[in-house]
Amino acid sequence: MTTTSTTSVTNEYKALQAAEAAAKASANSSSSSSSSSSSSSVSSLDSLATNYTSFLTLLTTQLKNQDPSSPMSSDTFTSELAQFAGVQQQVETNTKLDSLISLNQDSQLSSDTGLVGDTITANSTTLPLQNSSASLSFTGTSGETVAIAVSNSAGTIVKDVVATASSGTNTWTWDGTDNSGNKLSDGGYSVSVKTVDSAGTTSDVAFTVSGTITGIQKGSSDMMVQLGSATIPMSSITNVSPKTSSSSSSSSSSSSSGSSSSSTTTGT
Questions:
Q1: CB neighbours of residue 114 within 10 Å
Q2: Per-range mean pLDDT, top range of 108-112, 169-173, 254-258
Q3: Using CB atoms within 10 A as the burial measure, which of 19, 30, 155, 166 is most buried?
Q4: Which long-range contacts (CB under 8 A, 24 or more apart) does 59-68 make?
C-alpha cells in the first residue's frame, strides 16, 4: 500500500514537471516568434532590394573598368543583363505580392469583424484569461492522472494542478489566481497538459482552449483573433458559437463545466 502511494505521488510529480517545462517552453517560443515574424518579411525584401542595388553597382563598375583591348564578350554581357533583369523582376514581384496579400487581408478583415462577440474553441497553447476566467477541455479516461501548468509571458509558472480525469470530455476552469491565491491580470498565458502512465512515462494530452472574440487584426501570415488581451491565429480555431445563441450556450456550458471541472480538479 505504501509502495503504491509513493509511486502515485512520484508519477504525479513527473507529470507536473513535464507540464511546467512544456508551458515554459511555449511561453518562450511565443515571445521569440512574435518578435521575429513581424520583421522577417520586411528584412527579406530589404535584403533583396539591397542585393539588386549592389548588383547594378558591380555591373556598371565592371563595364566602366573593362579592358578596351579585351572588352566583355556579348554572351557574358547578355547573361549578366539577364541576371540583372531577373533580380529586378523578383523585387517587383515580391512588392506586388505583398500588396495583393494586404488587399486580401483587408477584405477578410472586413468580413471577419462579424465574429466579434462569438465564443470559440481553438487548438492553441495560449490560454486566454478574460474577466478573470479561462477554460480548456480535453478527453480523458477514468482515473487518469493529468497535470496542467500555466505560465506567464516571462516563462514563470503561475498555476499548476494535478487532477484525476473522468471518462470522456473534461473541462478545467481557471479563476485567474496563481498558486498563492493572488489575482492575475487578464491576458494570454501559455498552458500545457500532460499525463503519466504507471511506468512513469509522461505524454502530451490534446486539448482546446475557449474564449470570446473581442477583435480581429492582420498578422504577418494569418488573420489574428483577439480574445481580450490574448491573440491566436484564425487558423487554430476549431469551432465558433455565434453570439446570437450565446446565452443558451453559456448556460449549458456552465452546467457541464461545473460537473466536469469538479471531477478533474482533485489536487493542486
A1: 12
A2: 169-173
A3: 19
A4: 59/84
| H or E element that contains 194 | strand 187-196
Distance CA 2, CA 15 (A): 20
CA–CA separation, 190 and 184 (whole Å) = 14
Is the confidence at residue 248, as pLDDT, over 70?
no
> What is the C-alpha to C-alpha distance for residues 239 and 75, in angstroms, rounded to an integer?
60
Residue 171: which H helix or E strand, with range?
strand 168-174
What DSSP assignment string belongs to 217-256?
Answer: EE-SSSEEEEETTEEEEGGGEEEEE-GGGHHHHHHHHHHH
> 193: burial class by Cβ within 10 Å (0-12, 13-18, 19+)?
buried
73 - beta bridge partners? Answer: none
Average pLDDT over residues 121-132: 96
Cα-Cα-Cα-Cα dihedral sign, residues 149, 152, 155, 159:
negative
pTM equals 0.65
Rounded Cα distance between 253 and 268, Å, is 24
CA distance 235 to 214: 17
Contact 186, 176 (CB under 8 A): yes
DSSP per position, 84-150? HHHHHHHHHHHHHHHHHHHHHHHHHHHHHGGGTT-EEEE--SEEEEBTTBEEEEEEE-TT-EEEEEE
Pair 228, 214: CB distance under 8 Å: yes
Minimum mean pLDDT range among 61-70, 98-107, 147-156, 186-195: 98-107
Q: Find the length of the chain.
A: 268
Q: Ranked by mean pLDDT, which of 12-21, 181-190, 232-241 comes out on top?
A: 181-190
Local structure of 192: helix, strand or coil: strand
